[in-house]
Amino acid sequence: MGSHDASDGNTPKNEITSHATPQEVEYNDSDPAQIDVEVPNKQPETQNDTAATTIERITTNDRPYSSFTTRQKAVIVLVATLGGSFSPFSTFIYFPAIDTISHALGVSVSDVNLTITTYMIFQGISPSFTSAIADDYGRRPAYVIGFTVYLAANLGLALNKTYAGLLVLRCVQSAGSSGLVTLMQGTIADIVTSAERGKYIAITSLAGILAPSLAPIIGGVLAQRLGWHSVFWFLLILGGVYFVPLALFFPETCRSVVGDGSIEPPKWNRCLTNLSRQRKKVSDGENGSEQGTGLDDKPEKEKASPRRRKWDVFGSLTIVGDPETAILLLYMGIIYAGFYVVSTSLTVQFHNIYGLSSTLQGLLFIPQVVGTILATITNTRLLDRNFKKYALKAGLEVDRKKQGDLSKMPIERARLEIGMPFFAFGAVFIIIYGWLLEQRVNIAGPIIMLGAIGYTTMVGFNTISVLIIDLHRKRAATASAASNLVRCLLGAGASAVANPMIEAMGNGWTLTLVGLVELVTLPLLVVMIKVGMEWRVKRREKEERRMREDEEKERAENA
């Protein structure tokens, strides 16, 4: 494995030459699985020469996508899902306390609603910063920073007695918790292949649906029995119980840091499991082992931190600019906005029409919970089954432990074929729900529609979330931040106009408008199915061309 000059056109196909430090290890997350190990050349150095480093690209078609076992992946997904639920949970647990806060602080309900709007604005913007940290430095540092900010904000809110403090600290609370959703999606992409992604993404989507359904019930009980400050004491305790074991035991999964999980992260980014394994290996070495027992016995170059990309805070905006991603994010945002119109007006409308008490109003979210659980059970199997069908048609081997090459597979069609009928049904269900409320029919009718809306909304989230991660697997956290940005901004607008629109137009026409918007924009997904693969190939070629130009520029600077 000799050294080759960067300008030599006869460089062997399996080798790439780069000027770099001998201690860099770059995990190349392209398809098939590859590891780029940089090996210093053996040519003597002079004072005026920069040592060239040869990167031998080892194609490992038989290498599993992740070194984590199935049980370990299940635990990681569960922990990440619980973390991702804190942002929507903190949003909706606040709603039942609005009237109480208004009276306690001597401000209007509109003033308190302003804290919801500002919360959602920060909920859309903050993940761009979190994803930049997570994709470059790892998931663990981003988790620690996010939860530290979140816990500090909850402590401040629990002690706060002014409206100004409430407004500011709710923004800080949102900034800390909102990035956890992007970390959840990024973590899933780190360890799960496209062949099994439907199952895992569906589980994580429960964080965004179940939290808004369960949080108002808990928030209502706390605010009524213990006062509005108890809501934030509850969030502080809940967050602390989650954060301590996370910080101690949750492993780093970011592929630019640990590859498939077999590369040791930097010492400052290791959990107790890493450290205990390291101590065991050191102890084994002291007891006479000369062969080496694991990663810590490998050459230093295989343990070093990977080369970092430039910290890109605005990477999510770049992703939004991709036409195929823009279509997906727009339609997901429309679905999310429709869900918010239904959810934010739910308690008020059922109180006005059916005279339900606060406790019974909280129970109205249970049909949505049932719908989302049923969607998770059914939609995951459909997504994975359809993926397998199109993968086999494209001549790809379907292996849940290995990430296949999706460049020749119509992944857009494989995913959206499942979601399209449910998108249409969901829009129709919203329209029916609106007119059932308008006609003041028996309460059973609207409740059934709430379950149906919860089911179709969950299917929509699952389908588009899986596809977005498929398209941006290497920048999963950034892609999730872009999704969060669009969803939260549209959701903030929807929650602000929902009740005023219903007061002006009535439930029937307001929700008819919402349903029609979803139906009218549905053909955008047909366009995605038709030309999405072509756009994806062009985007990939553009990215590869830009990477080659960057490498050539780096070589020229180091020459």
UniProtKB/TrEMBL annotation:
Keyword Transport on entry: yes
Pfam families in the record: MFS_1
Name of protein: Major facilitator superfamily (MFS) profile domain-containing protein
Domain of life, per lineage: Eukaryota
InterPro entries reported for this sequence: MFS, MFS_dom, MFS_trans_sf
Biased composition, class Basic and acidic residues, residue ranges: 295-305
Biased composition annotated in UniProt, kind: Polar residues: 8-21
Domain Major facilitator superfamily (MFS) profile: 76-533
GO MF entries: transmembrane transporter activity
Entry membrane topology: Multi-pass membrane protein
UniProt keyword list: Membrane, Transmembrane, Transmembrane helix, Transport
Upper lineage: Eukaryota, Fungi, Dikarya, Ascomycota, Pezizomycotina
Transmembrane segments: 74-95, 101-122, 142-159, 200-219, 231-250, 313-342, 362-383, 418-437, 443-469, 481-502, 508-532
Cellular component, GO annotation: plasma membrane
Main location group: membrane
Subcellular location: Membrane
Region (Disordered) location: 1-51, 279-307, 540-559
